[in-house]
Automatic annotation (TrEMBL):
InterPro entries: ComFB
Protein name: Late competence development ComFB family protein
Domain of life assignment: Bacteria
Length: 95
């Protein structure tokens, strides 16, 4: 199947993971390394362990907001973020 790129494809988990990471790790200053490479690696590792939720419409914005309010989802995301922080702190991928 060939997809037209007229409509954007968005994994709704990306902004959720990014926002929770920002609020719970970046703003609190608890990361051992706060460089952009480590932050991106933490987000990517977390996303790789969470189920994606794709959308391609403007209604997707409402979908993202509704997902973000689910306590179980927030708990799952924070669990994966915590695991990813530990992994990246132990083995940072600095060049």
């Amino acid at each position: 199947m060939i997809f037209s790129r007229d409509l954007p494809i968005l994994n709704a988990m990306e902004p959720i993971v990014g926002n929770l990471f920002e609020d719970n790790y970046v703003k609190t200053g608890i990361l051992k390394c706060d460089c952009e490479k480590c932050r991106i690696d933490i987000i990517l590792l977390s996303l790789n362990h969470l189920s994606p939720h794709y959308t391609s419409s403007q209604a997707g914005e409402a979908y993202v907001k509704a997902l973000y309010l689910e306590p179980q989802l927030q708990s799952d995301v924070l669990r994966e973020l915590t695991k990813a922080v530990k992994v990246i702190e132990e083995r940072p991928n600095h060049t």
